[in-house]
Design goal:
two-stranded antiparallel sheet, 5 helices
Length: 134
Amino acid sequence: MSGLVLKLAPKERVLINGAVIENGDRRSRLAIMSPNAHILRLKDALHPSEVNTPVKRVCYVAQLALSGDADPEDAHSQILSGIEQLSQALRDSDSRDCLDEATQAMMDGKTYQALKALRRLLPRESRLLARQVQ
């Protein structure tokens, strides 16, 4: 089987081509066969009011691309630009690995995988920002 396979928890919601779909009471798997479908797990979604840090801004652009709410070409260049800017600030090897993975995913046209890699930076960013406040 090819395509994207979504494994959904009970009552988990997913946005597919603008439609919110909620899973039933049991775990399930969906095979998405359309290669250009816009898919976003709502548990991964950032609310616009939460977008207040550099990593969250890049994640949000990726989210908009996945939901179909942003022009794909504009989003692609904004995400790559954002990753480049983050690479100037996040220089440790773990962050570099995440940023390299996100860059490669974007180059391969895999925005969801890029978002997953970028989301791994959120705890690190939170810790760094908390240190600055102290």
